[in-house]
Amino acid sequence: MAKEKKVEQITDMDVDFGQWFTDVVIRSELIGYSGVKGFFILRPYGYAIWENIQAELDRRFKDTGHENISMPLLITESLLQKEKDHVEGFAPECAWVTFGGSEELEERLAIRPTSEVLFCDHWQQIVQSWRDLPKLYNQWASVLRWEKSTRPFLRHREFLWQEGHTVHATAEEAIAETEQMLEIYADVYENVLAMPCLKGVKTDKEKFAGAERTYCVECMMHDKKGLQAGTSHYFGDGFTKAFDITFTDKTNTLQHPHQTSWGFSTRSIGGIIMTHGDNNGLVLPPRIAPIQAIVIPIGMHKPGVLEKASELVSRLKTVGIRVKCDESDQTPGWKFAEYEMKGVPLRIEIGPKDIENGQCVAARRDNGEKVTIPLAALETKATELLDDIQISLFNKAKENLDKNTRNAATLDEAKAILNEHGGFIKTMWCGSRECELSMKAEADVTSRCLPFEQERIGDTCPICGKPGDKMVVWGVAY
Questions:
Q1: Pairing of the two strands 370-374 and 346-350
Q2: Quick one: average pLDDT of 146-164?
Q3: For residue 4, how many other CB atoms are within 10 A of its CB?
Q4: What is the mean pLDDT of residues 248-272?
Q5: Average pLDDT over every residue of 425-450
């Protein structure tokens, strides 16, 4: 059940989850609307969350040998069309530049929907020998995809992301890279964002345009819908052949290298909101919260209160806690509600009686529990509470995923489960595209992934009744 609501401007999540999400995004000052449909303003608090996620990812990328690079914003139409499957996949979403100033361009320029072809064009110029490989690049950028319907964080026309692009001498190296980057995504989701995820491979129908294989992490939201949270793609040598990228190997033989790409976007912030939020607003995992602890002085006009609050802030900063003190003239009750709305993990209250007793009061955002902390133990106890909140949020989300994932042996059983409970359905599958399309038509779900951890939950495909040797997870997704 959703937590009791205190903020009247937020729609109850059990009444209208979509409107609740929008209310939280706006009231907590994450997003603003621009004058162009589908183009959102990422406000300072929302951008600060992204910066913290970005820092976690960027450190991991560099630890595994990747370098950051910046590619152009525009792609010539002729370059984009060099890889047939890729261009067909993105053509409906491309936005085109046809004029430069007042002059019509000789060739249309696409605003990048993704950058595979730009990297290929660059590699064609710089890769000649096996000594030039691998190239391990990452780009922090925005991309533009002309989506028909848009929602804050979940589907923007322009959005921020990172896109990694690498090229390798062998298929084995490229596949290992693709799998390594998926593990990094899963690590960040589970250990930083406190979001448990399923790791697996997309079906051929759902894989990225131009990829031989797409790996993915899939997460379950509070409303039991799925979110494709990050993808990593193995391209084989399809792009490098299309772009005539070759290198001389150690035997002096000309070869086409093998390519990967992988991406993680601000959609992850939407996932955080829908996984952890409640009827009072955001609930942020401490490891990415812009403010991990907010100090609220009680009775600020009383002698020594502001000074003591400032001292607590300084002490918490020395142990690496992101902390702020609210010295505004708003009432304590208003401040409590405001920082609950913003999802600050820990609230610390200090007043004259607390000072007299050598203590402060800490309130947890995740469950509302209050704890009295001796001032002498502030740094240790605050750190312990933040660690416990991080773990508690993950465990709560994991429980939601586990209890709302069910097995089905037949199509009728799958439909009954979905109608009554929603969530994810695990079935065996024959591997045919026709059965995958039938599952969408009959049960209104799509394949989320073929999990790495396969289970034998039956012998036949629930749609056609033929032998099924793969276990697939189905669900309704954002």
A1: unpaired
A2: 95
A3: 9
A4: 97
A5: 96
Predicted confidence at residue 418, as pLDDT, reads 95
| CB-based contact 57:184 (threshold 8 Å) | yes
Q: Alpha helices, DSSP H only, in 320-410?
A: 332-341, 352-356, 378-403
Mean pLDDT to the nearest integer, 363-386: 98
Distance (Å, rounded) from C-alpha 107 to C-alpha 224?
46
The residue among 177, 175, 141, 136 whose CA lies nearest residue 160 is 141
State the pLDDT confidence band at 7, using cuts at 50, 70 and 90. low
The pTM (predicted TM-score) of the whole model is 0.95
Average pLDDT value for the chain: 95
Helix (H, G, I), strand (E, B) or coil at 53: helix
The pLDDT value recorded for residue 388 is 98
Buried b (16+ CB within 10 A) or exposed e, 269-302: bbbbbbbbbbbbbbbbbbbbbbbbbbbbbbeeee
Residue 215 pairs in a beta bridge with 201, 232
User: Going from the N-terminus, what domains does the chain have, and what CATH number goes with each?
Assistant: 17-276 (3.30.930.10), 293-395 (3.40.50.800), 405-475 (3.30.110.30)
CB 411 within 8 A of CB 443: yes
Q: How many residues are given for the chain?
A: 478
CA separation for the pair 205, 234 (Å, rounded): 15
- The band of 88, judged by pLDDT with boundaries at 50, 70 and 90, is confident
- Give the residue from 316, 277, 273, 276 showing the smallest Cα distance to 294: 316
The Cα 103–Cα 112 span in angstroms is 21
DSSP string of 91-121? GGG-EEEEEETTEEEEEEEEEPS--HHHHHH
Strand partners for 359: 374
- Per-residue pLDDT band at 2 (split at 50, 70, 90): very low
